[in-house]
Amino acid sequence: MEMEQEKMHVSKELCAESAAYCCSACHGDETWSYGHPIRGRAKSRSLSASPAPGSTKEFRRTRSLHGPCPVTTFGPKACVLQNPQTIMHIQDPASQRLTWNKSPKSVLVVKKVRDAGLLQPFKELCTYLMENNMVVYVEKKVLEDPAIVSDENFGAVKKKFCTFREDYDDISNQIDFIICLGGDGTLLYASSLFQGSVPPVMAFHLGSLGFLTPFNFENFQSQVTQVIEGNAAVVLRSRLKVRVVKEPRGRKGPVPNGLSENGAPAPGQADGGKQAMQYQVLNEVVIDRGPSSYLSNVDVYLDGHLITTVQGDGVIVSTPTGSTAYAAAAGASMIHPNVPAIMITPICPHSLSFRPIVVPAGVELKIMLSPEARNTAWVSFDGRKRQEIRHGDSISITTSRYPLPSICVRDPVSDWFESLAQCLHWNVRKKQAHFPEEEEGEG
After folding, report:
1. Closest CA to 198 of 281, 82, 132
2. Partners of 45 in the β-ladder
3. What are the backbone angles phi and psi of residue 355, rounded to the nearest 5°?
4. Torsion, Cα of 67, 70, 72, 78 (10° steps)
5. Cα 58–64–70 angle (5° rounding)?
6. Is the full-model pTM beyond 0.90?
7. Please, which residues have CB within 8 angstroms of residue 434's CB and are 6 or more apart in sequence?
């Protein structure tokens, strides 16, 4: 899958002595090619990349949220060195469209478990997909539901499924796109199945909240067909890459099939024989005091520098997607998924001045128990894999290179504000009555 975007061909040179990146603003070697304007809006001339006097080149502003061009310039000669370790390229939400290199052939259907109301939609969807020659993957435990086992009419379809087991089978390279039936938790679960690149996700609202699931199931045939044909907008929801390093405390038994508990390759040994585990998180990492009655006391480092000590019930480190979940309940601001950021939100801090903060995407956060902490802490990842953190253990968090491409009903902006209004009733109130026309004309 690739995003349709305005393509710009930038020729680069390496300086012979310093091997530093030489941008076009300094050396005048940049060439441009033009794409089609998006949504009919004309491109404006870039002030920060204007051509030199007498030059015949015409510079056009791109629609990137990072800056006016891939190589951001400041004045006639200053620029920022190109960073080959770029985490994510964030572009204008309006330009993010789904396209396929090849026609999709396989689809993973993730269904909310223990919900009898989803059985009929699940059967209808799977039957429709197979009638359109799609290979359908489902989790093995889904087909073990007594209502599906006893349904003789569904027997012929059931034999065609490809099944897998969480934590045992790796299907990351076999799935073209994902369809979720359920609520937000179903989408979070689907994200956890892919510790690397995530296929596009189409989420139907069949759960209790539905902030991340914009599609209604009534017209699923036409909507699924549009996605298969590549006619859809997507929003790239950034994820967090989390690495937990623990001091060795006793030996554990072998993990089945060489996989760790979250489906990633079995963790190796960190420096000093410590145990290391890695997770991909869509919403948030929560560090709290667990069952202890003492305040949580953890140190937070940013790129190796101690920035604060959290004393309270804990701290939430969330993505923009997670800003509308636990973080919002703890008093944080809500951030659009296209904003490249990481949010740090204290949980009931024992301080009147400890407010939530937003830091740039790509920084590395490290969280450890303070030396004077009276008790241990507990950590969870999107509400799962909860575990204890003791003295000497550490949690490293940064922006993942593998975002989750979530398919939109309309576009990233409209869908997000629609969810704010419908699910959280954001700024929903009765309108103020206007004055009668007679009073407006008086005095």
Report:
1. 281
2. 60
3. -105, 155
4. 180
5. 60
6. no
7. none
Q: How far apart are CA 188 and CA 101, in angstroms?
A: 26
What is the CA 21 to chain-centroid distance, rounded? Answer: 31
User: Residue 410 burial by CB count (10 A; 0-12/13-18/19+): exposed, middle or buried?
Assistant: exposed
**In this predicted model, what pLDDT tens digit does every residue of 332-390 receive, in sequence order?**
999 999 999 999 999 999 999 999 999 999 999 999 999 999 999 999 999 999 999 99
Residue with tokens 């059931």: 158
Closest CA to 310 of 365, 392, 240: 365
DSSP calls for 146-213: HHHHT-GGGHHHHTT-EEE-TTT---TTT-SEEEEEESHHHHHHHHHT-SS----EEEEE-SS--SS-
Structure tokens at 289: 């005091």
Contact by Cβ (8 Å): 393, 370: no
Query: 120-164, pLDDT tens digit by residue?
Result: 999 999 999 999 999 999 998 888 888 788 787 787 788 889 988
Contact between 358 and 368 under an 8 Å Cβ cutoff? The reply is: no
CA distance 265 to 268: 9
Instruction: Give the DSSP H/E element, type plus range, for residue 227.
Output: helix 220-228
* Residues in Cβ contact with 172 at an 8 Å cutoff, skipping those fewer than 6 apart: 193, 194, 195, 196, 197
What span, in angstroms and rounded, lies between the C-alpha atoms of 67 and 77? 16
From CA 87, how far away is CA 161, in angstroms rounded? 36
Contact 279, 400 (CB under 8 A): no
- Type of residue numbered 295: L
Q: Which of 427, 415, 3 is nearest to 212 (CA)?
A: 415
* C-alpha torsion angle, residues 302, 303, 304, 306 (rounded to 10): -20
181 closest CA partner among 190, 194, 171, 193: 190
Strands in 206-295 per DSSP E: 234-237, 240-246, 275-281, 284-288
Neighbours of 388 (CB within 10 A): 11
| Calpha distance 399→281 (Å, rounded) | 9
Other beta carbons within 10 angstroms of residue 275's beta carbon come to 16
